[in-house]
Design a protein that fits this description.
With 674 residues, the protein is an alpha/beta fold. Among the domains are: 186-235, no CATH class; 345-498, 3-Layer(aba) Sandwich (Rossmann fold), CATH 3.40.50.970; 526-673, Rossmann fold (3-Layer(aba) Sandwich). Helix content is 40%, strand content 14%. The chain is built from 25 helices and 18 strands. The protein has a 7-stranded mixed sheet, sandwiched between helices. A 6-stranded mixed sheet has the order 12-14-13-16-17-18, sandwiched between helices. The chain is globular. It starts with 17 loop residues before the first helix and ends with a strand.
């Protein structure tokens, strides 16, 4: 690489000529591909916006001008151009560069993103604040075609058009065909609308016609309608124009000249302007172009690395996977290694859902723009007429499920835990208040890892514990997941089933008999310490118990299975006489599963005063802080929620409640959280 390492910041782009810019684009793609092949990440979308990012940073004067990346997973070129090249190899690793924009990393990162559809609201807020202060900085928002249909984005777009907020919206259209009508006339009209002559003559004409005595207002309205009809006939974008947003495009998103000319003039227009840019996911890496779904997310197929930059553009290097001449097919050894990994919880859940649907034609499935990530593409293949993908609209997904349930269907809504947060009101008001048998598949519950603060599934349990009628469950392993899914469809109330991103334990198949709602199980008997866990962390609790047992402690382990309702009788019985009760969860401890155990024991202590003397320690994700990015295994070690960390924390608690030399004394009441 000859150009990228020498860039101190985006201002340096303005000294590069056209040939150097093309070379820089190739270097950016190589840096992204080589890094993501090692760290994982959102490859396709970032490769698709390389030229767009270069063009925006050449025109905007960041960080004075503000560039907002909606969602943010396409911001890898932005990070490389804003001073993070040397550290880019640490992408999504513990303590390294984040996979989304992070204000703590750079003044060029305007907003800590991660959820789709938020950028337009942020951009409008920045623009309105600028206008209030009488400033002149330019505000640009890059939003994807899928994110644009989210409810929040449409609400913001409507308000932006209504207020005529001066704002540049770049629609990165890399998949959904918004504009089938593309041709010479569309291009011609876009050029006219960008020209100063058009803008000036249009303003003078409107003033002249509007000033005509008696008929001016009517004539102006008719004239504007006619002009609008002509424009709409020739090009797409009627929705945006009707909302009050000037529409320009489509513009080829990998043509640096076209991007530069269009974006410069668009920034000169008054009011809000939307520039529709057509890009291709995975641009420059043939396997990613061919498999846009597989190479979109963080967990990627096996990758062959491109050859190092040697002065030629990727399409000029024969034999490189960048131009499709090389063999991009994973080797047999790579494929075999991938198949040796035990199936993950998502795969097991959807496999069981398909089996349940085979026997029950009422079962339908819903997701919000993530059929592949949630595994529901398999359900769709089996039952195409019983699958509903509503796009990035979690609120609608949950309320739609309520309507389906009211109509006699049995809906399964698969959403990542972090995205289910967006539909909290719908869960409360629609599902639970109406007590409908909607099954919420809470995927990616707990630590998600490299995607960081915006994606950790750590807040859902406290939110759901308070809701009437809702059952909240999680399995200790993948076979128990199958049983709990049968439980969910065998009862008639809302049911939230939490399961992690992790692989399962490769356990042998069992008959998935339903588990009675609220029934916990004792996995191990003991007289000194009681570990009570919720979800797969229970298995790490068993490992910790083995280590403590070797030291002479007698440790009982309970798999709660349900955070709501709790098996209160079993819990009170097992807590009796213990020196210490420890709760385990991979969720925030404030108001979570451990809090539920604490509340249950407090209630039971009115009838059994001895329980008041049993100290309780809550282990889980720390309250009042977000968990940063890093591999799930590294995060568990750092947060002391791996087996060794749990064992160490229990030992520390025992030293406080039963110190050496005083272990025969009665334990004192002590409640702690971590």
């Amino acid at each position: 690489m000859t150009i990228l390492p020498g860039l101190a910041g985006p201002a340096d782009l303005r000294r590069l000529d056209e040939q150097q810019l093309h070379q820089l684009a190739a270097e950016l793609r190589t840096a992204i591909i080589e890094t993501v092949a090692k760290t994982g990440g959102h490859l396709g979308s970032s490769l698709g916006v390389v030229e767009l990012t270069i063009a925006l940073h050449r025109i905007l004067e960041s960080p004075t001008d503000r560039l907002v990346w909606d969602t943010g997973h396409q911001a890898y070129p932005h990070k490389l151009l804003t001073g993070r090249f040397e550290r880019f190899g640490t992408l999504r690793q513990l303590g390294g560069v984040g996979g989304f924009p992070r204000r703590t990393e750079s003044p060029h990162d305007v907003f800590d993103g991660g959820h789709a559809g938020t950028g337009l609201s942020i951009g409008e807020g920045l623009a309105l604040a600028r206008d209030q202060r009488g400033r002149n900085e330019r505000i640009a928002v890059v939003v994807g075609d899928a994110a644009l249909i989210s409810g929040l984005a449409l609400e913001a777009l409507n308000d932006i058009g209504h207020r005529k907020t001066r704002l540049l919206i770049v629609l990165n259209d890399n998949e959904m065909s918004i504009s089938p009508t593309v041709g010479a006339l569309s291009t011609y009209l876009s050029r006219i609308k960008l020209s100063g002559t058009w803008r000036g003559s249009k303003r003078v004409y409107d003033q002249l016609v509007g000033g005509l005595p008696l008929v001016g207002g009517t004539a102006l309205e008719l004239s504007q309608r006619l002009r609008s009809s002509v424009v709409n006939f020739a090009q797409p974008g009627r929705l945006f124009e009707d909302l009050g947003v000037t529409y320009i495009g489509p513009v080829p998103g990998h043509n640096l000249r076209a991007l530069d000319a269009t974006l410069r003039r668009a920034l000169e227009l008054e009011g809000p302007v939307l520039v529709h840019v057509r890009t291709r996911k995975g641009r420059g890496y043939r396997p990613a172009e061919a498999d846009q779904i597989g190479f979109h997310g963080a967990a990627l197929p096996p990758m062959l690395l491109p050859e190092p930059i040697d002065g030629r553009t990727p399409t000029e290097r024969p034999g490189s996977p960048l131009n499709g001449d090389g063999d991009a097919t994973p080797s047999a050894a790579q494929a075999a290694a991938a198949h040796r990994k035990p199936p993950n919880y998502t795969s097991v859940a959807i496999g069981e859902l398909i089996e349940i649907a085979r026997d029950d034609p009422r079962v339908v499935a819903i997701t919000a723009g993530m059929p592949t990530g949630t595994g529901l593409h398999r359900f769709q293949a089996a039952y195409p007429d019983r699958m509903y993908d509503v796009g990035i609209a979690e609120q609608h997904a949950v309320t739609l499920a309520t309507g389906l349930a009211m109509g006699g269907q049995r809906p399964f809504v698969a959403l990542y835990s972090t995205f289910l947060q967006r539909a909290f009101d719908q869960t409360v008001h629609d599902v639970c208040q109406n007590d409908q048998p909607v099954v919420l598949g809470v995927d990616r519950a707990g630590l998600v890892g490299e995607d960081g603060t915006s994606h950790q599934g750590m807040f859902t349990i406290p939110a759901q514990r308070q809701l009437p009628n809702l059952v909240v469950a999680a399995p200790k392993d993948e076979q128990e997941l199958r049983r709990l899914l049968r439980t969910a469809f065998g009862q008639d109330h809302p049911f939230a089933l939490h399961y992690p991103r992790d692989s399962g334990f490769d356990l042998p198949q069992i008959e998935p008999t339903p588990i009675p709602v609220g029934e916990a199980e004792v996995l191990r008997q003991g007289s000194d310490v009681l570990l009570v866990g919720f979800g797969p962390i229970v298995m790490r609790g068993l490992e910790a118990a083995d280590g403590l047992e070797a030291d002479g402690w007698s440790v009982a382990v309970v798999n709660a299975r349900f955070a709501k309702p709790l098996d209160r009788e079993l819990l009170a019985r097992e807590a009796r006489g213990k020196r210490l009760v420890v709760t385990l969860e991979e969720s925030v401890v404030a108001g979570g599963f451990g809090s539920a155990i604490l509340e249950a024991l407090a209630d039971a202590s009115f009838l059994e005063p001895d329980l008041r003397q049993v100290p309780v320690r809550l282990l889980g994700l720390p309250a009042d802080r977000f968990v940063d990015h890093g591999s799930v295994s590294d995060l568990r070690v750092a947060l002391r929620l791996d087996a060794a960390g749990i064992e160490a924390q229990v030992r520390e608690a025992l030293e406080q409640v039963a110190p050496a030399g005083a272990r025969g004394s009665a334990p004192r009441l002590e409640v702690r959280s971590a």
